[in-house]
Amino acid sequence: MSYIEVENLTKSFTVRKKREKGHLLREKTTVQALKGISLQIEKGDLIGYIGPNGAGKSTTVKILSGILTPDGGRVSVDGRVPWLERKKHVRHIGVVFGQRSQLWWDVPILDSYCLLKDIYRLTDADWKTRLDELTEKLDLGSLLRTPLRQLSLGQRMRAELCGSLLHRPELLFLDEPTIGLDAVSKLALRDFLKEENRKNGTTVLLTTHDMEDVAALCRRVTVIGHGSKLYDGTLNELLARYDTKRTVTARYDGEVSLESLPESCSMSRDGEDWRIVYEPAKVPTPELLSRLQSVGSIRELTAQPQNIDHMIAAMYREMDL
Amino acid sequence: MRIKAYLSIFRMRLKQELQYRGAMIGGICCQAFFGLILVALYRALYAGHPQTVPLEATVSYVWLQQAFFRMLGATDNDLADRIRTGDIAYDLARPLNLYGYYYSRVMAQKLTGSLMRAAPMLVFAALLPKGWGISAPASLPALIAGIAALMLGLVVSSAIENLTVGFTMRTLDPRGIQAMLNLLMMILSGSILPLTLFPDAWQRVIALMPHTQMLDAPIRLYTGQRSLSELLQIIGLQIFWAAALLGLGLLLWSRNRKRLTVQGG
Predict the structure, then answer these.
(1) B22 has a chain A CB within 8 A of its CB
(2) Which of A249, A298, B38, B137 could bond B143 through an S-S bridge, CB–CB 3.0 to 4.6 Å?
(3) In whole angstroms, what is the distance from residue A167 CA to residue B23 CA?
C-alpha cells in the first residue's frame, strides 16, 4: 500500500448566484469540484500537482490535510483518514498556503514560532535545534524580531515555510508557495525544498502555476482539470507529448524569399527577422537548416528555447480546459 | 495535556492586543467621559429625590461598569475575519480543538481589552473627589468575592462570544448575530437602563439570565449591595450558564465541522 492512497474522491460546493433579474432572489447551483480523483503517492516523492485555476487542486490539498470533509471516496495517508482523525493527522503534516498567512500579523515572527512550539508540543531543545537550522537555511536570522506585517513578500514566504516545518512534518503540502516571488527568492525556495526532500525524506505535494517550479523540483506531475485527473507521470513524457513544435529565428544579408520551405512550416516576418515555426517530426531540424542556408547567406540564427508555459497552455487547450 | 498550547495562544493574543496602544487610550478617554456624564446624571437624580441605594455605591457601580465594559459585548472581529477570508484553513491544520483554540483567543482579547482599560480608569476614578469617584469595596472578602465572580463572568461572556463565531461559520457575516446578542446583553446586563427600574416580575426572570451574572452581580458584591451569603447562589448560576453555553458552543462547532467551506480558494 502506498503512503498516500486516494480513491475516487468527490467533493461538491454550493454556490449562490444572484439572478439576472431582481435583487433579492439567488440561485443555488452545485459545483462539482472533484469528480472522482484517484492518486497514489509514495513516501519521499516530490509531486507537482498542476492544472488551471479552479481545477480542484486546492480542494484536494485541503481534503488530504484534514481541513475539508469530502462527499465520497476513500483517502488514507500513512493509514490515517485525514478528516476523521484530523488532530492526529495534522501533527505529522505541514501546510503552506501561498496566499494566506499562518503567522501572527502584528507580533514578531519569533513569537509565532514559540506558539507553534507549544501547539505541536515540541521540547525546547528540539525546537531550538530545528529553528536554528531553518533560520540559517532560509536566511531569517535578522528577521526573527520583526513583526510579520513589516516583512516583504519574499521574506514572508520564507518565514511561513519555516513555521510549517518546525515540527518536522513527514508530509508537506505547498499550495502555490512561489506566488508573487522574485527570481532570487524563487530559486532559493526551490533549493531549500529540494534539500529538505533529499535530506529528511519529506514527501512534498506542490501545487503551482509556475512550470519552472515543477521542472526544477518534481519527478512526477499530476494534471487535473474540471475535477478529473488528466495525466499522471513524468514531466518529460508530458512535455514530449505536447512539445511538437520548434521555433527558429533567422536574419539574412539582403532580401530572400522563403517560399521554398515545406508547407508544414509557418513563417512570419518582424523587421529583418524571419520567424519559422516547424514540427521536427515532419521536417527534421538538419533538413530545415540546410534549406534555410540554401536561400541566402545567414547573418544570425537563433533557436528559441522550449517554453513550458506555451506547452502547458497548448495542453490545456487540447484537453478542453 | 494540551492546556499549555491554549495558554500559549492566550498569551499571544495578549501580545497582539498590546500592539494597539492608541486605540486603548482612545477607549479609556471615551469611557471616562461616559462615566463622568453618568455620575453627573445620577447626582442630579439623587439631589431631586434621595434613593434607597447610597450615592457612593451607585457612583462606584458606574465606574466599575465603565471599566469592564469591554468584557461584555461580542466585539472581536479577528476570528470572524479568519472565517470570512478562509484563514481558518490554517487553524484547522493544527492539532488542536478548534473551539478551544478560538475560545482562548476570545477570552484573552476580553481580558486584556478590559484590564488594560480598567486599570487606568479605576486609578482616575479613585482620584476624583468623594461622591464623584469610586469608593473602597464593602470589605476585603467582598472584594475577593467580586473578583472571583467577575472571572466566572468572563468565562460565560467568552462562551457567548464564541457562539457568535460559530454562527459566523454558517452566515459568513458576524454583524447580525453580534448586533442581536449585544443588544440583548446591553438590556439584560443593565447597561441601558438600571435593572432596578424594570417591573418586579421581569426582574425575577432577568436575574436568572447569564447576563446579570457577568458584571452586575460582581459589582454588587464589591459595593456590598449583594451580601456574601448570596455568593454561592451567584456562583452556582454562573457555573450553570458556563456549562450550558460551552456545551451549546461545542455542539454547534462540531456540526459546523462537516459542512465547512474554506472561502477564497
Answers:
(1) no
(2) B137
(3) 36
Q: Does domain A4-240 have CATH number 3.40.50.300?
A: yes
The answer on pLDDT for A82 being more than 60 is yes
For position A22, what pLDDT does the model report?
66
Does residue B21 sit at the A interface (CB-CB below 8 Å)? no
Q: Categorize the per-residue pLDDT at A41 as very low, low, confident or very high, splitting at 50, 70 and 90.
A: very high
This model of the complex carries an ipTM of: 0.79
> What CATH number has the domain spanning A244-305?
3.30.70
The parts of chain B modelled with pLDDT lower than 50 are none
pLDDT of residue B264: 60
Nearest to B56 by CA among B162, B163, B130: B130
Residue whose grid cell is 530545528: A130
* Domain range summary for chain B, segments of one domain joined by +: 3-259
**Smallest CA–CA distance from B6 into chain A, residue:** A119
Q: Region A96-110: what's the mean pLDDT? A: 89
CB-CB under 8 Å, B4 with A107:
no
Residue A88 with chain B: CB contacts under 8 Å:
95
Going through A64-195 in order, the beta strands assigned E by DSSP cover: 72-77, 93-97, 171-175
Q: Which long-range contacts (CB under 8 A, 24 or more apart) does B144-151 make?
A: B145/B221, B145/B228, B145/B231, B146/B218, B146/B219, B146/B221, B146/B222, B147/B218, B148/B235, B149/B213, B149/B217, B149/B218, B149/B221, B149/B231, B149/B234, B149/B235, B149/B238, B150/B68, B150/B71, B150/B215, B150/B218
Q: How far is CA B100 from the centre of its chain?
A: 18
Locate the chain B residue with the closest alpha carbon to A91.
B95
Q: Which amino acid is at A259?
A: E
Say how many C-beta atoms besides its own lie within 10 A of residue A88's C-beta. 13
DSSP assignment of A43-91 equals TT-EEEEE-STTSSHHHHHHHHTTSS--SEEEEEETTB-TTTSHHHHHT
- For the residues A177-195, what does the mean pLDDT come to? 87
pLDDT over threshold 60, residue A202:
yes
For residue range B203-215, list pLDDT tens digits in order: 889 888 888 888 8
Is residue B261 less than 8 Å (CB to CB) from chain A? Answer: yes
User: How close A118 comes to chain B (CA, Å)?
Assistant: 5
